[in-house]
Amino acid sequence: MTEVIFVEVTASRMEMRTCEIAEHSYAQGDRLQIIAIDEEQAARLDDLLWTYKPGSFVPHGLWKGMDSESDQPVIITTRKERVPGITSLLTMDYCPVKMVQQFSKIIHVVVVDNQERLEASRRYWTLLKDAGFTLRHQRR
């Protein structure tokens, strides 16, 4: 069964926390797919994964679709489709239940200081719970 973790962050820490999660995932030997909200965020995450912490190294790449290279341990994309070979997913937005079922672990970032995003995450929690997933909540 897919492990689903909802992680609380503030809007100002969302991208840094995403990098921390990516680094941890890489250190654990997991392959992580990050679904960015848009192309601008994908580009920022691409840059941040090289620079967010001195001495940090998180090999990663941008994925534009099935013709893209996907052999990096961390893949950033805006597409809501599973990258071949990836086992874990980090998302900041809704992903269809059928997609969630394809991963061993889902990390959903909950932005607690944005009411619209917070309400969307609550609805997503309910949807996944009703679909039979076991959910965990991780506070800041």
CATH fold annotation: Rossmann fold
Q: What is the CATH architecture descriptor?
A: 3-Layer(aba) Sandwich
Order of helices and strands: EHEHEEEHEHE
Number of strands: 7
Number of helices: 4
Name of the top-level CATH class: Alpha Beta
Q: Helicity, in percent?
A: 25-40%
Give the radius of gyration: 14 Å
CATH superfamily: DNA polymerase III subunit chi
Strand order of the largest sheet: 3-4-2-5-6-1-7
Most strands sheet: 7 strands, parallel
Number of domains: 1
The whole-number mean of residue pLDDT values reads: 93
**Shape summary:** globular
Cα-to-Cα separation, first versus last residue: 25 Å
Strand content: 15-25%
Q: Spans with pLDDT under 50 lasting ≥5 residues?
A: none
Features:
140 residues, alpha/beta, Rossmann fold, 34% helix, 24% strand
Describe the structure.
The two termini are 25 Å apart. The chain has 4 helices and 7 strands. Helix 3 (97-100) links the parallel strand 5 (88-91) and strand 6 (105-111). It has 140 residues and is α/β, with parallel strands linked by helices.
Offer a concise description of the structure.
The protein has helices spanning 14-27, 39-51, 97-100, 115-130; strands spanning 3-9, 32-35, 60-62, 74-77, 88-91, 105-111, 134-138. The protein has 140 residues and is an alpha/beta fold.
